[in-house]
Design goal:
The protein is of the alpha/beta class. It contains 9 helices and 5 strands. A 5-stranded parallel sheet has the order 1-2-3-4-5, with helices on both faces. It is globular and about 45 Å long. The model is unreliable at about 95-105 and about 210-214 (pLDDT under 50).
């Protein structure tokens, strides 16, 4: 499963990831219609049941990494591993450095819905509040993740690298920083992105040449 960021983007923004991986794996992406994080998680689980997978690997780009992590926390028996590609700041404490990295600055910001984005941000802050209750903090959730994880960062990422390092530390994940890449390494360094993700999946027993679905 490949999850888009934003929030409020459609799955077209992660279509290049699906294309990079489809030769070797069954790849699924979908456009959620949720107005809350719980809605999105419920829809994600409904997709898993519909396609008949007992468990799967979940890749989340940017804000989608938060969804992937929250899903792994709520349904740990359904997740074989996590790939957090340029995950959003793990807490609001890291957001000042990154500045505004919303859809208008993203090369694949297609069909962005700002109303959905605002609601999902507000809901995330509500369910994962920081200590000051003025933002969010995903660190307590990340600390409870017990599945294998891979964290991908870019040398010129818009996300504070300290946040990415903390994601990897708390999830006990492998940390990869790709030189010459920004926040969209699957566009900047597609072959390297594909290699790192493919190696991670193959090392965990995923079989080659599964049927792709999109």
């Amino acid at each position: 499963m490949v999850l888009q960021g934003g929030p409020g983007l459609t799955s077209r923004s992660v279509a290049p990831i699906a294309e990079l991986l489809a030769e070797d794996f069954r790849v699924v992406r979908f456009d959620h219609t949720g107005w809350t994080v719980a809605d999105v998680l419920d829809q994600l689980e409904a997709v898993r049941r519909e396609i008949g997978e007992e468990s799967w690997f979940v890749l989340g780009h940017s804000w989608g990494a938060a969804v992937a992590t929250l899903y792994a926390h709520s349904c740990p028996e359904r997740v074989r591993g996590l790939i957090l590609a340029h995950p959003l700041e793990i807490s609001s404490a890291f957001c000042d450095r990154a500045g505004d990295t919303q859809a208008g600055e993203d090369p694949l910001a297609l069909d962005h819905d700002p109303d959905v984005a605002d609601l999902l941000w507000e809901d995330l802050e509500s369910i994962c509040p920081d200590t000051a209750e003025e933002g969010y903090d995903l660190a307590p959730i990340a600390r409870q993740i017990n599945v294998p994880s891979l964290v991908l960062l870019g040398e010129y990422d818009s996300i504070d690298p300290r946040s990415g390092q903390l994601w990897a530390e708390l999830t006990n994940g492998r940390l990869i920083s790709m030189s010459g890449s920004g926040h969209w390494s699957f566009l900047d360094r597609p072959l390297e992105f594909r290699r790192e993700v493919t190696e991670f999946l193959f090392e965990r027993g995923v079989r080659r040449a599964m049927v792709a679905a999109g």
